[in-house]
Amino acid sequence: MEFDSDEHAYDCYNEYAAAIGFSVRxxxxxxxxxxxxxxxxxxxxxxxGYRGKDKRDPTVQKHRKETRTGCLAHVIVSRQSNGRFRIxxxxxxxxxxxxxxxxxxxxxxxxxxxxxxxxxxxLLDDLGIRPKAxxxxxxxxxxxxxxxxxxxxxHKNYLRDKRTDSLKHGVAxxxxxxxxxxxxxxxxxxxxxxxxxxxxxxxxxxxxGKMIRDFKIYGDIVSFDTTYRTNxxxxxxxxxxxxxxxxxxxxxGAALLYEESAESFEWxxxxxxxxxxxxxxxxxxxxxxxxxxxxxxxxxxxxxxRLCVWHLEKNAFKHLNHVFRAHASFPGDFSKLLYHxxxxxxxxxxxxxxxxxxxxxxNSWLKNTFAIREKCSMTYGRNTFSAGMRSTxxxxxxxGFLRGYLKSDLDIVQFFKHFQRSVDDKRANxxxxxFDMTQRISILKVKFPLLVHARxxxxxxxxxxxxxxxxxxxxxxxxxxxxxxxxxxxxVSTHGSVKEHVVTVKRTLTEVSCSCKLFEFMxxxxxxxxxILDLLNVKDMIPEHYILKRWTKDATNLNKIDVSLVAKETxxxxxxxxxxRHLCQTFVQISSEASESIEGYELVANHANEIxxxxxxxxxxxxxxxxxxxxxxxxxxxxxxxxxxTNVTKxxxxxxxxxxxxxxxxxxxxxxxxxxxxxTSFSKSPQRSDQQVDYVQEIHFPRxxxxxxxxxxxxxxxxxxxxQLSQGSAxxxxxxxxxxxxxxxxxxxxxxxxxxxxxxx
Length: 761
What we know:
Elements: E1 2-3, H1 6-20, E2 24-31, E3 38-45, E4 74-79, E5 85-91, H2 115-126, H3 131-142, H4 152-166, H5 171-185, E6 190-195, E7 200-207, H6 209-218, E8 221-227, E9 237-243, E10 249-256, H7 262-276, E11 283-286, H8 290-299, E12 304-307, H9 309-319, H10 321-326, H11 330-339, H12 344-357, H13 364-371, H14 373-376, H15 378-381, H16 393-402, H17 412-439, H18 449-457, H19 460-473, E13 476-484, E14 487-494, E15 500-506, E16 511-514, H20 518-522, H21 527-535, H22 558-564, H23 572-594, H24 598-624, E17 653-654, H25 670-684, H26 690-698, H27 706-716, H28 719-726, H29 733-743, H30 747-760
Parallel strand pairs: 7-17, 8-11, 11-12
Antiparallel strand pairs: 1-5, 2-3, 3-4, 4-5, 6-7, 7-10, 8-9, 9-10, 13-14, 14-15, 15-16
Helix pairs in contact: 2-3, 2-23, 7-8, 11-12, 18-19, 19-21, 23-24, 27-28, 27-30, 29-30
């Protein structure tokens, strides 16, 4: 029997081994000294020979089980003059039990992850599917684990080796390679790296083409926030987000920072606007961080920097907790200062009244808050467009959304892949909203010409808000008016409300301005302005200067953007996986049909053998044509985009950040820590003080009186823990006390309770 190559001989012998029930190992290969090709090869049973002695054996506590038995079964193939291989030696007999057919798939030589399977594992891993779930999916797709061709351990080892290989050039080089690949896939992709004096990467910013285009359309309002525990490098993730024309979140860019210092934020903001190449936003919303505030003042001096109202209310409860508890009216008064007043005079008067009413004139936190009142009170914030945003809740919600994709144990390459998954999912929601906008029509509450026009121009979400304002305008009435030539002023109010608003009108220009500032702040006309426009006989169309482009259906110019996109080449891995999945579904259906009858089974089995034979011929022809390597992406130096004019050769590594979070392991109680500490001390030093020995012994001895135990529990434990103790008897009171103390959050308080109990006994 002849073979095309030594590898062909191995494949045939391995098939024979699978049918018999043993595994194959390559023993040796002789090569031509001049040309280097294989002249002969010996293939043996994997139980051939014996395990050699290891000098570490005396120190090993648990040895691995022996697998070799000195089996002599083998085959030797030699190269002939025609270049083909022929069997020159064959030993059939084995000195061990052979494996039954049901367990053949566990033999080492029969376990191999094929290319199509590897591609599918990669795709499932990139989707964030856990190894166990992806293995179970592949096994079910193949008809069972015995037909899969590899084990769960092989699956995990493949992923481990893949991740190790992705970082073989170092974290920094892998990061740059990822960015270079993204740049080739998306020519509009941009990134920026900041290096320290040693060439180590400190801060990283990136944005793809879609983010840059979104910022040019919706970049008038930006929310900025940071989040933690998203990657293995302990770096905070900073996000720039905004609102699209559906009032849904869009991402403008992201960054991994080394530290949250004013210098880092200043570099980040400069890099962000340099990459966006657009105007600065009208409003920039952040939390109350001094470093961010300082950087904003340097980079965006003309931008209205708004502080998150939610964080401000949280800080108020923290610093004025005694006032909140003592006065039930204080939360309402403080909330009015943030949201209610339209005029600065009213705000200042109410602020002073609050200080006097609650005797807070000397409170330092309120003094500092008053100094930044223009950044946090709606009295000042109404004058600047903010798309209706008062807080960083948009960023906070996305941070929560990211926790479903990002984990603290992800390496840098995994982090970027899974972050992109989260971005893609958010964009899928935007596509769904665009689809609904074109295929579904909003319902008119009243068939009024102005509402019909609003439905034509606005997105469904914005139209619903506009229609609600128009509906409420029916309840608005005019209390008084004054005519001063070109300007006309109306004092209006709503039925059921005592609050008045002032609407000023320029008659010739059909311009209205309301004291509630809803249009200036939100971008849609308020009910008061709509009432006056109706009075001015504006009933058919919304004046053009009151329609913001960002809220309209054609805000994105989708057709133009799609034409400008660069066509991407299809991923060969995706093609292979798609073919594999399609064939699996087809053959599962064929197997189901054929197994119902003997004739069908024989028909499919005969054709299957024929197909396998032809596939081997296809594989041989493909291997013989492999004179040129496959497609490999070559990253040229000039294809790397460094916004800071930093050459890729200057990058020496990623600057390591010390962990600031707690360990993921279960927190130990002080009893466990004390026991471990004493055990360690005993093993290191036999001489210990009597006090230390007595302390360890006392933990196990006395059983205190039940009444004493309950007294301590009521004094130091939460009501829930005390009720648990009360259910026990005096016999088990100490055991319950220790068990509940381990559940208390403050370890020192639990320790003091138990030690006091020991001292009293």
